[in-house]
């Protein structure tokens, strides 16, 4: 099997032409998204090039502290993004979201690294950083969807929740329906992807490995591993986040905060 085709700056220039087409189409359709397309493209180029250089250094060092440092930064950024999507004003949400991402990702990646992949060194950047990126990125979205959905449901249904509290329900019982709905909603993208993978979509890891010349069956095996790891991490994150979010709406006397 032939090796991957190397892309140079000229090829990336042609790729940038597709963003130019998006901007032109936006202008012709009066969508007013030209600036956002150009800004997003610029940020993508800058961020990926910077990350590429940093990871090259980390791979060269092959040091556990450097690898864990990269993972920690990724987790902190993911927590900030998820927290802002749930409620930008509530600064106290950050520890909750960060802790949820940390525990769910650690459990999932620990299982994956220790029992399945089993590299020579557990901190091998070749495995730990890409796996963390894929698992953490999806867990971040799950946290955002679950937290935002539950927050909105509680805020819209104060009267119904207070009625349940008056009838003797505790805080968990009074919001349990909304919590289950929030968790289910956060998992819909994950389940949809698993349902049609290989039939409608070819995920990024599978496609990337095939383009890199990896045997398609081995690439499919890694993609299966990633999908299952993402499913577990997303469910754990949604459970942890919703558990913490609903508690923030009640005081010590089981009263719903206004």
Put the structure in a nutshell:
The chain has helices at 9-28, 34-61, 64-87, 93-117, 125-156, 158-166, 171-196, 204-211, 216-247. With 258 residues, it is an all-alpha fold.
What labels would you give this structure?
258 residues, mainly alpha
**In sequence order, what are the helices and strands, one letter per element?**
HHHHHHHHH
Helix content: over 70%
Could you tell me the strand content as a percent range?
Answer: under 5%
Count helical runs: 9
Could you describe the 3D structure shown?
The model has no long low-confidence stretch (mean pLDDT 91). With 258 residues, the protein is mainly alpha-helical. The chain has helices at residues 9-28, 34-61, 64-87, 93-117, 125-156, 158-166, 171-196, 204-211, 216-247. It has nine helices and no strands. The chain starts with 8 loop residues before the first helix and ends in an 11-residue tail after the last helix. Helix 3 crosses helix 4 (93-117), helix 5 runs parallel beside helix 9 and helix 6 packs across helix 7 (171-196).
How do the helices and strands line up, and which of them pair or pack?
Layout: H1 9-28, H2 34-61, H3 64-87, H4 93-117, H5 125-156, H6 158-166, H7 171-196, H8 204-211, H9 216-247
Helix pairs in contact: 1-2, 3-4, 3-5, 4-5, 4-9, 5-7, 5-9, 6-7, 7-9, 8-9
